Amino acid sequence: MQRETAVHHQQASSVLVIGGDSTLGGLLVDRLSRKKSLVVSTTRHRITMRPNQVFLDLSTASLDASNLPEAIGWVVICAAMTNQQACAENPEESRRVNVTNTIELCKWAAQQNAKTILLSTNLIFDGLEPSAGPNSPIAPQSLYAQQKAEVEEVVLRQPGNTVCRLSKVLDQKTPLISKWIAKLRSGAPVKAFSDYKFAPVHSSIVIEVLTKIIEQKRPGIYQVSATETISYAEFARMIARALGLSPELVEGSLAPPHVFPESGMHRPIFMDMDTKAIQKKLGISPPTIEATIDLLLAQA
Ligand SMILES: NC(=O)c1ccc[n+]([C@@H]2O[C@H](COP(=O)([O-])OP(=O)(O)OC[C@H]3O[C@@H](n4cnc5c(N)ncnc54)[C@H](OP(=O)(O)O)[C@@H]3O)[C@@H](O)[C@H]2O)c1
Questions:
Q1: How do the pLDDT tens digits run along the chain, 300 residues long?
Q2: Which among 39, 81, 100, 133 has the fewest CB atoms less than 10 Å away?
Q3: In angstroms, rounded to a whole number, what is the distance separating the alpha carbons of residues 163 and 232?
Q4: What's the CA-to-centroid distance between 78 and ligand 1, angstroms?
Q5: 25-35: b (≥16 Cβ within 10 Å) or e
Q6: What residues does each domain of the chain span?
């Protein structure tokens, strides 16, 4: 039945979201569906499969594309093992999911004449310099980032394909953020890392970027991050100020050992990337930290 629904929707303009249960995949499916685009997504949970979903497990020994709709226009790859530590601890499985079968998926997409959009990461850079450009040298420092970099290379070999590199994506549903906002609003103190940095960007910006790439048929390399790198503690203080509260409610703390490189996690000095392409090619304003906080508080 699910297969029939998907087949019914086969059109060259339609979108196949690999990983419809992922945070970003789910948001993209919602956005495209609201715009009446034809969208099919994959899930690895047969029991909870929804209409317009098909089964796909990327951890199999070889890719089984038999459930995927053919003659699809765009394939957006959101599914991945995204936890750096889990990738490092399970190198064979993470390679099957993040590299081998994802590359097979790109080849399958090319055979369907579909354009692939790969969601990648700022971690493909070493983060020693701010504002890494789309063509800055790739220097991944963790297995997860190496895996993304390897697939990027394959994706970009095919004209018409896109790599969309993301830094930390968050919104009002991100547990850490909703917890901070609730605590601050109640006047309670908040602890946040003062030695761990990020370049947070709101999920709605990422979804806008993906939607515009598809609607305007503008493939290429896009980078979506905040325009600067700040510590978690400073970000929490900025939220406090934006709420009209004292930044002193935020107490800086040191990140625990599990975020150190020995556990397979890379902790770059700079997490921000050059985001000019989203402005120049898609007309999206630079995602400043202030803009991200405005979006967070508008929804919270
Ligand atoms: N969110 C960010 O801050 C961020 C930053 C940089 C890059 N990215 C990239 O953007 C993409 C989407 O991120 P996200 O945060 O939305 O991801 P997410 O919420 O962590 O979801 C990852 C998805 O991958 C699926 N998956 C894992 N193993 C799989 C397998 N063997 N077969 C099929 N599906 C499998 C998971 O399925 P289940 O739901 O069944 O577990 C899950 O839905 C990822 O590729 C990520 O690397 C995200």
A1: 344 444 444 455 799 999 999 999 999 999 999 988 899 999 999 999 999 999 999 999 999 999 999 889 999 999 999 999 999 999 999 999 999 999 999 999 999 999 999 999 999 999 999 999 999 999 999 999 999 999 999 999 999 999 999 999 999 999 999 999 999 999 999 999 999 999 999 999 999 999 999 999 999 999 999 999 999 999 999 999 999 999 999 999 998 776 665 667 788 999 999 999 999 999 999 999 999 999 999 976
A2: 133
A3: 27
A4: 6
A5: bbbbbebbeee
A6: 2-170+203-227+274-288
* Length of the chain measured in residues: 300
Question: How many other CB atoms are there within 10 angstroms of residue 186's CB atom?
Answer: 7
Rounded Cα distance, 288 and 162, in Å: 23
User: How far, in Å, is the centroid of ligand 1 from the Cα of 221?
Assistant: 20
**Ligand 1 surroundings by CB, under 6 angstroms:** 19, 21-25, 44-45, 56-59, 78-82, 97, 119, 121, 166, 168-169
Look at residues 137, 133, 140, 53 and name the one whose alpha carbon lies nearest to residue 99: 140
230-231/169-170 β-pairing: unpaired
Please tell me the distance from the alpha carbon of residue 36 to that of residue 32, in angstroms, as a whole number.
Answer: 6
What is the residue type of 209? V
Pair 266, 141: CB distance under 8 Å: yes
CATH assignment of 2-170+203-227+274-288, given 3.30.360.10, 3.40.50.720, 3.40.30.10, 3.10.180.10?
3.40.50.720
Give the pTM. 0.95
